[in-house]
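dumping these here so i dont lose them again. two proteins, back to back, each one seq then structure tokens. dont judge the mess
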Amino acid sequence: MPITVHFATNRVVTGAAEDWRSYGNGMGGPGPADIVYATAFVNETSLTADTQGAITRIQDVSRGGFSDQAIGDLQDGGRNVLVFIHGFDNSFEAAITRAAFNRDWFAASRLEEADTSVVAFCWPSLGKLLTLPVLWGPYKSDQVMAGRSALHLMSFLANLQPIIEAARAEGRRVFLVAHSMGHWALQAALDAWFHAGNGDAVLFDEAFLAAADEVYDSFDYPLLGRLSGLGRLAAHISILFSNADLILSVSAALNGVRRLGQEGPHARFDTGRFPKAKFSMVDCGGFRDYTFDPASSHQYYRRSLAVRALITGTMARSRIA
């Protein structure tokens, strides 16, 4: 059976929106009505690798909001909901298939709570890895695009809010998984959310921040800046980090500041600032139950069976009181 991935994207669409090859690396129009919402189907036989052509079809395309079919599946589909924000070096096809991989890998735990309907936000990454001799170009382009996606991602979250509330009224849970540079987009969207006058709204039972390519003191910012306001949208936050993450070591050198996903947040041991009832600090640096190399060291949240078990176990326990 194909894997269903509902998605929204602010990528420019150069052809028919039903053709996955139409989704380019540039950014579409600036308004909420310019965001494309649709449903993709991913061939499950391709789940061992990010192979081109894994998306078999796209349907239920609309602009500015989810289709009735997608809304029904997310709020009435009988499953918990997984919201995924991808990171650096993800083409459109890679971002959508990665969302499908995560859904199936978490479901493989056989925990009912980890068998989810997935919805992804796809921002316009170039899909180019850091390569010598030019390191800064593709990375900086992605960082700029992630930051410029603030209003689009905020609009996506606003459109999700009534769907989430309806799903939760049916006893469902909602999880956020952000990876890598997806946190750069997330912090910008949170800043936009609160500056637009939006208030507290518990969108997520649990927010998993995995290998965050974001400044290490992101939770220190005043007036709900950067990630400091996430606790007002998430009942609980799990921060996954690894000092063995070789990609983030490069990112720290390029940016001149430590990343949140390397050793966790500033003052992470201060339970006054990070109460255990609200935050979990998950050090993943010691896990080696997967083929370890520079690329996989940044993908431990899905490559390591042990880390996946930690995530799915938390999914099973997380419930808003």
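---- next one ----
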Amino acid sequence: MLRILCVRFSSIGDILLTTPLVRALHRRHPEAELYFVTKRAMAPLVVENPHLTNVFALGPDEPLGDFAQRLRALGPTHGLDLHGSLRSTALRWLVPARWSGYSKRKLARTTLISTKINLYGKHVPVPERYFEAAHAAGLDVEPDGGPPEFYLTPAARAHMTHWLAEIGLDRKPFAALAPGAAHATKRWPIAHWRGLSDRLRQLGLGIVVVGGPQDRVLADELGGNPDIANAAGEFSLQETGACLARATVAVTGDTGVMHMATGVGTRVVALFGPTVEPFGFYPYTKRAVVLEQDLACRPCSAMGTERCPLGHHRCLADVLPDQVAAAVQQLVA
């Protein structure tokens, strides 16, 4: 009996991008027991996934040794380290199994950032890089080309149906806007978000702003208009997914919300600035448009920074609201 641990502790997008591998493992080895290992805060992203036997979540104060003991009790045959962190490396030592990982292409990434020389070779998106761990473990699986999957609870869907009815968007198409990002250089200028919301309303779309609690203040800057519903920080991961599932389109930066939207099948317009396609995190779906500027200074960082190294932030400032509105029209036509 195959008992496979799929280990990815964070973050939102990285976890959802493992789900094509989870799907492929289940289809190729339907008799296998598949366990997802993550942090408790991230568990809602995979807890409803029907391809998994169970989800093991590390509590915020749980000693790693105790957590490893819980995993050892499963008697796993294989461990797929899809994180490559200190924590996941420790599990390799603490939980006996046939362990394997994947290449993060750190040298190629660093070289591209510092010299703009592309050593990546053939482009392989991150969801397909995860398959390297399965191949190294002798598990015969291949990508099916399908998108990530974010499965939602009936309770989350029901809550969103009720909330949308309360704000009058239960019978009206709307766009989900995600202006937030962990680092400033990944954020589209707030004035551009305001301009886009005006254009989308002219197209007959309602506006719902989504994001985490840290995005609430930024989302408030889009306020002052009763037609804009600010849901940033108001919903759980599951409820945010349910909101995205009801949206006609989502407009986001290179963030976890982008992958949540693709995971529920929503069309996406993605705005990329300091990061680029070879890193592997473009939306993994055909129902997406990526807008970016061809600038010699890109990429300037792996995950964004607090300020543009050159002081102009043209990578995102030069992407104009009219361009984004046109991309939305293209997707929803």
